Amino acid sequence: MTLADSAIVAGIVFVAVLLQATIFASFAVLGGTPDVLLLALLGISLLRGAITGAVAGFSGGLLLDVVTLDTLGLTALILALAGYWTGRYGETTGRGRAQAPILSVIVVTILVAVLGFFLHFLLGEEVSLRRALVEALVAGLGLNLIFGGPVFALCRSLLERGAQRTAEVRLLG
Fold it and tell me: The pTM is what?
């Protein structure tokens, strides 16, 4: 990954954190909110792989925790795991498949909600199971599926613009 790719990924994560903390945090529909940072992370992970996804997830989650004054490191841990495993899916079987973004949005949104509930419960914070895993998850999953297409298209256009792919290998000798 080049320095230009790193700057583009950092910019995408930074803008996604700002949008998540300011606009989309108060954009509640049927009790759920879209997770634009997660969608941007999924786009980055599918296009750039596991390590880039884990680093982007950790840094974006830590930045979101600092901006929202949430439990420091909790979102960073969850998004680092989500970025890593989505990147592994993209590296192994998901690359080039049309259903990979939709499938990753569905699976990772559910896993992030369950893991977030479990970690908040372990820390002793008061969390309603019905609210977290039924009401907010169903509405949030629907909103993530709606916003997923435009976010993936934006990530793809930004990340493939700077990518230099080798069309063929030239042998010396």
Answer: 0.88
